[in-house]
Amino acid sequence: MNNSNKEIIIIGAGLTGLTLGYYLSKTNCKFKIIEAQNRIGGRIYTKETPNNAPIELGATWFAKQHTNVLSLLKELNLTLFEQVLGTTAVYEPISTSPPQIVQLPKNQEPSYRLTGGTEQLIQKLAQHINKDDLIIDQEVTTILHEDDRVIVKTTNQNYIGNVVISTLPPHLLTNTITFDPKLENNFYQTAKNTHTWMGESIKIGFTFKTPFWREHNLSGTIFSNVGPIPEMYDHSNQQDNLYALKGFFNGVYHKTTKEERCELALLQLEKYYGKQVRDFLTYEEMVWKSEKYTSTEYDDLVLPHQNNGDHAFQKSYYNHKLWIAGTETSISYFGYMEGAVRSAQRIFELLTT
Ligand SMILES: Cc1cc2nc3c(=O)[nH]c(=O)nc-3n(C[C@H](O)[C@H](O)[C@H](O)COP(=O)(O)OP(=O)(O)OC[C@H]3O[C@@H](n4cnc5c(N)ncnc54)[C@H](O)[C@@H]3O)c2cc1C
């Protein structure tokens, strides 16, 4: 399909939408990206704390097998550094025994973080996209198919194009955007039961004046089956002059307040590190289940990765005018940044060859 004269509308400025925009910006194709939030990046969100420490509240780690995203980073001159895991971890297997210090297995495949934070990838991609073609703060509500065009309606404007690409998690797409005419029933059934990766997760991060855990010969790595923090890691910056611990918080606490979650986290960390944890400089968190542009409630039980990469997301609708992209639609590495990049690359090839 040659789309050089066509107007392409991309819904969502997360990693998929921006990667697609980045590739399209190298061609003559006309395109616009419409983003509901007043920030870009979607599930990539590096929170800069008042003391300038970058805390990843969304995607953080890259792995060697994530070859397409690694090539993209190289192309954009972005660099990685290794996640510090250390040789030991605090481990709490059951509530009836005290926390233990365990040796971490040697020769583990390392994971990597992006220098300056994952947000650097988002900002670098956006730099290649014309400012007028990246529209933020406009929620798409309806996609209308009429003869040879599609009309994408937002809360305050209509955009007319020849092709529309959704990059929303499919479950969110079916729950929040109206299609006129309706798509085939199988699409709704599949999308309704498609898991949105990390949609239930809570991430928390503390910054500290000193990396006191290291004074106790601890790496900052925690694995617990007991406390509300199941996993935590040293999250200090690459220069190792801004000190932080960051981890996941049990998603069942999504209804408690930020202050309550902070206190519960401190109680758990105090067990391992003592009162020093209470001298934290900042506390940051993100409850992804409450993010209306990521998650909506499922009607039924949906298991992690369920229906990701399904056939319903590989085909086009509205006579090749509507394509469904996004990490959950990728046939490999779905859920991860790698899946988002692969999904964008697939759509780019479909649109330009
Ligand atoms: C807590 C957490 C930790 C993670 N950790 C990792 C990790 O370590 N490694 C890894 O590889 N991956 C990780 N991921 C997954 C990674 O973040 C995703 O794979 C990737 O960012 C998905 O990009 P996307 O563009 O497909 O979707 P999204 O980022 O969800 O982008 C969709 C975009 O659409 C916008 N949008 C939604 N509704 C509308 C609407 N109606 N109109 C217009 N715009 C709309 C959203 O605001 C968003 O910007 C993590 C995710 C989370 C949440």
UniProtKB/TrEMBL annotation:
GO molecular function: monoamine oxidase activity
One Pfam family per UniProt: NAD_binding_8
Domain Amine oxidase, first and last residues per copy: 103-346
Entry keywords, A to Z: Membrane, Oxidoreductase, Transmembrane, Transmembrane helix
EC number: 1.4.3.4
Membrane-crossing segments per the record: 7-24
Record keyword Transmembrane helix present: yes
Family: Belongs to the flavin monoamine oxidase family.
Protein name: Monoamine oxidase
